[in-house]
Automatic annotation (TrEMBL):
<dbReference type="InterPro" id="IPR001736">
    <property type="entry name" value="PLipase_D/transphosphatidylase"/>
</dbReference>
<dbReference type="GO" id="GO:0032049">
    <property type="term" value="P:cardiolipin biosynthetic process"/>
</dbReference>
<dbReference type="InterPro" id="IPR047955">
    <property type="entry name" value="DrmC-like"/>
</dbReference>
<feature type="domain" description="PLD phosphodiesterase">
    <location>
        <begin position="202"/>
        <end position="229"/>
    </location>
</feature>
<protein>
    <submittedName>
        <fullName>Phosphatidylserine/phosphatidylglycerophosphate/ cardiolipin synthase-like enzyme</fullName>
    </submittedName>
</protein>
<dbReference type="Pfam" id="PF13091">
    <property type="entry name" value="PLDc_2"/>
</dbReference>
<dbReference type="InterPro" id="IPR025202">
    <property type="entry name" value="PLD-like_dom"/>
</dbReference>
<dbReference type="GO" id="GO:0030572">
    <property type="term" value="F:phosphatidyltransferase activity"/>
</dbReference>
């Protein structure tokens, strides 16, 4: 049979529109609508059935979009369309799990004009630390130990996570970090960049800010590990959920910590 390019293009366009719709719906709505579609004989009254199944304000235009899609392919059964919607929603959720998102901090107070939908740096940092299962990499230029940060890292170490911490020695961060974790030296490992191994005649700085959980999730940004940076300063960052990109970040620092790298245990 000779392929029909026009038909294939229409089918792909239809599938793309369904995927976009599925990505706009929350999981509860998708499940309820898939169940409702299974009971529908055709697209004629489907909008009412969908809205009855998930009676939430603002869903009308989504129901209308799904009805229009079904009208364009009326040979599909309600069950088939429901399964297609569930599959598209699952694919959208997987893609979202790998999508990076912006995080930001400060200034505290201020008008609503200064507020955004971005997640706060502190909340994103806690998410990364709590998601670690085996390894946690912490890199910061400055560090002033806060009770919250010490608690989060201690909890990670106590559940068996090996925590590698690289800090800038000349800011006093390394010394400040040692005290709370003296009793956990095997689980919380400190690293330094000796002046003799630095460029610019020893004046180069360890200025990176990164927290990475295993090779699954990482927070990269401007914020140091200080209470002001995490909650009060104006800071921005990116929460990276793409494992391939996180692995590249982590591998870079693992190489620096390796036998031929410039870093050494503190």
């Amino acid at each position: 049979m000779t392929p029909n390019p026009a038909k294939e293009t229409e089918r792909e366009r239809w599938a793309l529109e369904l995927a976009k719709l599925a990505g706009r719906l929350n999981p509860t709505a998708v499940r309820r609508w898939a169940d409702a579609l299974e009971e529908c004989a055709g697209p004629g009254q489907v909008e009412h059935a969908l809205l009855d199944a998930h009676p939430v304000a603002g869903m009308g235009h989504h129901a209308a979009d799904l009805a229009r899609l079904w009208h364009r392919r009326p040979h599909l059964s309600g069950e088939a369309l429901g399964l297609a919607l569930l599959g598209a929603a699952a694919a959208a959720e997987r893609a979202d799990q790998c999508r990076s998102s912006v995080v930001a901090t400060g200034p505290s107070g201020g008008s609503a004009l200064h507020k955004s939908a971005a997640r706060t740096t502190g909340a994103a940092l806690e998410e990364v630390i709590r998601s670690a299962r085996e390894r946690l990499l912490v890199v910061s230029y400055a560090h002033h130990p806060s009770t919250r940060m010490v608690e989060e890292l201690t909890a990670a170490a106590e559940r068996g996570v090996v925590v590698d911490v690289l800090l800038e020695e000349k800011t006093g961060a390394l010394k400040a970090f040692k005290t709370p974790f003296t009793h956990m030296a095997d689980q919380v490992r400190l690293w330094r960049w000796p002046e003799a191994r630095r460029g610019a005649n020893g004046k180069a700085s360890m200025h990176a800010k990164l927290v990475a959980a295993d090779t699954a999730k990482a927070l990269v940004g401007s914020a140091n590990l200080t209470g002001h940076a995490l909650h009060h300063n104006i800071e921005v960052g990116v929460l990276v959920r793409d494992p391939s990109q996180v692995k590249r970040l982590v591998s870079h620092f693992r190489a620096l910590m390796g036998p031929d790298g410039p870093l050494e245990r503190a």
